């Protein structure tokens, strides 16, 4: 199916316009994901508030989700922590990413990236 779409041609200005609008929507996410910020053992009652306060420097924070993801089915599989921050506007998300990506926190180099809005809205935190 994907291979069929790769070679698909777009004709007509309205079709091109629809594709461009879809691409633009993808880029307008208001959600940032922070990776490698904390270990599961470092999660405490203060973490959500600390993240909200720090990210509040870049704009209005709608919500923060701290998500622990097991990296396999085995009982002893590694667990990684992703912190999702939803801002009011995409521009705030980009400001936060510029400031936080590559920053050191508790001896760890943070990775801050835009997260797909559609996935987030559908509670898919797996990407």
TrEMBL record:
RNA-binding keyword on record: yes
Originating species: Nothoprocta perdicaria (Chilean tinamou)
GO cellular component assignments: catalytic step 2 spliceosome; precatalytic spliceosome
SMART domains per record: RRM_1 (SM00361)
All residue ranges annotated as the RRM domain in the record: 30-117
InterPro entries: Nucleotide-bd_a/b_plait_sf (IPR012677), PUF60_regulator (IPR051974), PUF60_RRM3 (IPR034212), RBD_domain_sf (IPR035979), RRM_dom (IPR000504), RRM_euk-type (IPR003954)
GO terms (BP aspect): alternative mRNA splicing, via spliceosome; mRNA splice site recognition; regulation of alternative mRNA splicing, via spliceosome
Protein name per Swiss-Prot or TrEMBL: RRM domain-containing protein
Keywords: RNA-binding
């Amino acid at each position: 199916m994907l291979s069929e779409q790769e070679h698909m041609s777009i004709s007509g200005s309205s079709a091109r316009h629809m594709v461009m609008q879809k691409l633009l929507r993808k880029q307008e996410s208001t959600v940032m994901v922070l990776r490698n910020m904390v270990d599961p053992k470092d999660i405490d009652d203060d973490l959500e508030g600390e993240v909200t306060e720090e990210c509040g420097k870049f704009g209005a924070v709608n919500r923060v989700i701290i998500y622990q993801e097991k990296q396999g089915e085995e009982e002893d599989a590694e667990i990684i922590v992703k912190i999702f921050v939803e801002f009011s506007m995409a521009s705030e998300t980009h400001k936060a990413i510029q400031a936080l990506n590559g920053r050191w926190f508790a001896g760890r180099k943070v990775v801050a990236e835009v997260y797909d809005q559609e996935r987030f809205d559908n509670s898919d935190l797996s990407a």
